[in-house]
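Hey, resending since the last one bounced:
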Amino acid sequence: MARLAVVKRYGEARVTVAGVAGVAGALSLAVTLAHPLAGWAGVNAAALVVEVSVLLVLTVLTVRRSPARQAACCAALTGSAVALILLRAVWQGPPPLVLGACAAWALGAVAATGVGLYLRRLDDNRRRAIAEATRAQRLGLARDLHDFVAHDVNGMLVQAQAAQVVAGSLPEPVADALRRIEDAGQRALASLDRTVHALGERGPGIEGLARLADAFSPGVRVELAVEPGLAARHEVSSLAYRVVTEALTNVRRHAPRATSVVVEVREEGGVLRVRVADDGGGSSPSTRIGGFGLAGLADLLEARGGRLTAGPHGGGWQLDAEIPA
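The structure tokens again:
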């Protein structure tokens, strides 16, 4: 179910809060300006209150949840619509009355914008706190692995090496078993070193995508397109790398017929967009079985204010991630 929650068929229209607010603000402004232009007089007070309430709620939601550029544009439309809406009733009055009415109602739009900014700040603080807590947990796990598990494995390795030296000539089966124990210990320590490094250090970022693409399956052509001059924060860049890694892993696992993969990374409106599309047919028996990779990645992106969608697209499968830059 978690996997299904992040799967969405492409081609469907996306309705965003900013889009709804922009359309509502533009329509309200058009109706307001139509009153003096067409000579309309009189308004329905109840309808006016409902309209203003809707515009104020949309202003709060847009400022709180939308990317900065969209939020500024759409909140300006809804705010202007609220400030000018009394023109429908007083446009025939003296100029001081008209200006006073617009100024008074503009305070409501300013207050709504302030509430939205305050909630947006709380959301940002919550995301930063989650990120810091996650990092602290990873560092703690890395320390435990290094201080306890690696120490015990190293002790087992030393005992195996000592047994080969101290015991002198050993029967061949016993000597062979000790050598295999020593080799397994060396591999375990190497794996622990890599795990501790991965937990304690942030992973590679966008700069590592070229190497990741080159190292992919020799039977699949990977076309990588990264926006020139893109300079994302390290946390954002690292998350984009993780998205591409998960997408390529899914191509290898679920799309054995794929011959090409397109990877695009660009920034748009304060959001880093990552798109990975393949031509592997869109589904396979293993796809229907599902997994936890996409669901976990979707949860991670959501916790950081982003979004992940994936689904059949054309002759293959497409994954699209949005990461607040």
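The CA atoms of residues 150 and 189 lie 6 Å apart.

Sorry for the duplicate.
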